[in-house]
Design goal:
With 171 residues, the protein is α+β, with helices and mostly antiparallel strands. It has three helices and nine strands, in the order H-H-H-E-E-E-E-E-E-E-E-E. The strands form two sheets. Strands 3-4-8-7-6-5 form a six-stranded antiparallel sheet, with no helix packed on it. The relative contact order is 0.17. The chain binds zinc ion.
Length: 171
């Protein structure tokens, strides 16, 4: 009789454990889907980025650095074409959106498709409240956006040249 009771207890314990497994699985799946929601469409590991980018580009795009003012190749660049993300090639700005801000970095008053292309993130680093802009496709750091632009949009997308590539328009 006692043996039967112990057997019954073991059965109960097994039943309890087997009920736990699906619950854990659900929780795992939930946290997985949360991770996926914040995932970028174009993802690479740190090692892959280091292989693809120059060390200067890696510092800016992946470590959120800033190039020296006036040093970038697109600062005083006025050709017709499209500025793309140096990380993933996503088209970000047109030459029509570029203006001379005299701030030392390429500046744009808008981007090609709003938040779909250029994502804004609040940045509290260096004791300042600024709004960081990143490529919505790969998360690469582009620069910052300010609301002191001189054109109708009132916006100034202040972008590192190293975050950009340029595709010349051929007419
Ligand atoms: Zn990108």
């Amino acid at each position: 009789m006692q043996a039967f009771f112990i057997f019954f207890l073991i059965l109960l314990t097994l039943e309890f454990l087997s009920c736990q497994t699906p619950l854990n699985k659900i929780e795992n799946n939930l946290s997985k889907s949360k991770q996926e929601a914040t995932k970028m469409k174009y993802e690479k590991t740190d090692d892959e980025w280091k292989k693809q980018l120059s060390s200067e580009q890696y510092d800016i795009l992946r470590l959120k650095g800033t190039e020296r003012p006036g040093s970038g190749k697109y600062n005083s660049h006025n050709e017709k074409g499209i500025y793309t993300c140096a990380g993933c090639g996503s088209e970000l700005f047109t030459n029509d959106q570029k203006f001379d801000s005299h701030c030392g970095w390429p500046s744009f008053d808008n981007n090609i498709a709003g938040e779909e292309k250029v994502k804004q993130i609040k940045d509290y680093s260096y004791g300042m409240i600024r709004t960081e802009i990143v490529c919505a496709n790969c998360g690469g750091h582009l620069g910052h956006i300010f609301d002191d632009g001189p054109t109708a949009t009132g916006l100034r997308y202040c972008v590192n040249s190293l975050s950009l590539n340029f595709i010349k328009k051929t007419e």
